[in-house]
């Protein structure tokens, strides 16, 4: 089952440029960079197309966030290598991408009673005074964690692929069904 309104909103990857990076030179020579080594050992670099942000460490390790597909990840890394070349840092490897987290949003098209969910499900955190959503950690092969809202909107995080997102949402719907969670949309309409 695939929900047509499920979309990837962020992919976080890690990689290595396999090259020492002089962060001080990057901050002086490249736009859209921030570096404050007293607060954090990495340099932050933002690019516009595809919209993404990098954490770059002097060891050559890199974390990229903000992309919405693996094609965007590849393009963002190409741009990063181009920026490095502009300051005479020649990256000779094709960075090997490791997906750390895929975040997706969806709408399960149900109105939900979050108090009922908090009572009927285990692995739940729900404190409506602090946050309007319920946090639910599903125990399945995907390792997903959900933010669930009363209007049926959900955020799925902790997965490693688009396929895992869809499996996790399918499993979430099964958990809701087995727990006897009713669709309050039907009851109130």
Notes on the structure:
- The chain is an alpha+beta fold and 189 residues long.
- It has two domains: 13-99, TATA-Binding Protein; 108-188, 2-Layer Sandwich (TATA-Binding Protein), CATH 3.30.310.10.
- The protein has helices at residues 23-29, 70-86, 114-120, 162-178, 184-188, and strands at residues 7-16, 33-34, 43-47, 52-56, 61-67, 98-107, 124-125, 134-137, 145-148, 153-159.
- It has a ten-stranded antiparallel sheet, with helices on one face.
- β3 and β4 form a beta hairpin.
- The longest helix has 17 residues, at 70-86.
- It is elongated.
Distance between the termini: 25 Å
Q: Could you say which structural class the secondary elements and strand pairing correspond to?
A: alpha+beta
Low-confidence spans: none
Distinct helical segment count: 5
Query: In CATH, what is the class of the largest domain?
Result: Alpha Beta
CATH architecture of the largest domain: 2-Layer Sandwich
The helical percent reads 25-40%
Number of strands: 10
Instruction: Tell me the strand order in the biggest sheet.
Output: 2-3-4-5-1-6-10-9-8-7
